[in-house]
Amino acid sequence: MIPIRKEGMAVCEKCGAIGVKHSFYTKERRFCSQACAKSFNESPHMSSNNSACQQEGGPAGRRCSRVFQQKTAALSQRSTWIRQRQVRRNYPSLYGFDWVEMLTEPGFVTPPISCFRHAPLCDTWASDVSVGMKVEVENTDTRQATANSDPQSYWVASVISLMGYKALLRYEGFGNDDSKDFWVNLAAEDVHPVGWCASKGKPLIPPRTIQDKYTEWREFLVKRLTGARSLPNQFHVRVLEACRSRFRLGMTVELIDRNRLSSVKVAVIDMIVGRRLLLRYEGSVPDEMGFWCHEESSLIHPVGWSQTVGHHIDALPAYLERCAKKVSLTNDATSELFNEMKPTQGNGALKFKEGMKLEAVDPLNLDHICVASVVKVLRQGYLMIRIDRQEADAGDDQVEDPGEFCYHSSSACIAPPGFCEANAITLKPPEDYEGRFRWGDYLRQNKATPAPESLFGGRDENMPQLRVGMRVEAADLMDPRLVCVATIAQIAGRLVRIHFDGWSDDFDQWMDISSPEIYPVGWCELAGYRLETPIAPGMV
Fold first, then answer.
1. Does pTM top 0.85 for this prediction?
2. What is the tally of structural domains in the chain?
3. Could you tell me the residue range of the domain that residue 89 belongs to?
């Protein structure tokens, strides 16, 4: 056993730097620099007063109670996460595809975690994790037999390369020999910062293949670890926090009616996995398939949203009445839980007019961008759109047109006339249109007005820097319970065409480049969500 911390080495609790313990700061030698010590002490989690928490009756006591409840919830979620990982280890097929077989393919490239604003640790991953950093992981190259699933020994490894959440590791001592390199999910519970084994009484044993390479392994590790970095303090706690949903089971929301896109229905959250929500329409039969989406999806809204913006809703009179009276129930998902899109000055949201022509992604055929019309301008920047091939139902004007669907005026899924031509995309004209489609001719024939380009949001510098050919995990928006292996096939403005590996191009889907349904490689494994295996060639 080679205890790192006990032999004069220390790991900075703020930045993860490894160094000689006596050179560290504070009485307990917890930080590598004054800056780390200062910033750590200024962190929100250091502001609690333990003595005040003992006063159960006062405000501090109530604060302590809330903290206790939060920690209890965190422990519960942590236990669930650990169980999921144990199941994954023992029954990997239940969680579907493993990226490992693809990661070493020539030209394989993934977007950095920072490209996904909804992904766990998207803001800190680049500073927390880097090539060359050291971690402690299970030593699988050992003679010791394992009577159960618990690792019997560990060893220090270096990060050789990064692909999303996946990291290629090499045990210390192998030098340039890559014969025993292996991939792990760096955010997994079984990857530890240097010093973890010493703190837990776990043995550090050199891999069998190189055990005779050095006689003084302790001295070797001290040299290798001095000045190196490891995972920062509380890294896995922050992973858990980042995976926790702001919603809770049983909450009520308003959700797009998947059978009638022009309407919304009341739905209840039935399950939460990695901030993806399984929703069931209120009043649906128990066997009816639910609806999966990410909590940041534009398809879900707070209670009362439809009445606020003027969207059609199919709900019981009692629900409509209490929404009109602004009466909230305990389980109502209120607007504070949503990042609702609002019209901003200069985006032209209030200048859209009924009858204006534009180009829109067809929500029923997501590989098509079609000629479309604004049929109604709602409040707060929302628009009802209809693909021009569809005709409105004859009859009562008060009944919503089933061919309509709602997009926000800032959505990447609508664009001005000419967008497709400018981006070498085939625009789908109305089905009854004869001859080659030209916007000028079509507008004259219909005496219609094009939606001005100034009304649409353009590219911004904060957009994810995705590139064609990058690999991702993406939900199939036509069957959103499925998250699949996918490739970035095309980028046009704020739209990205997602190609599902193994499927023909006919199944491609246009999505917002910032869609919360596009995930980095390794997200499914991290969240405990099944990743669908690509279809083998010839099966489609």
1. no
2. 4
3. 51-96
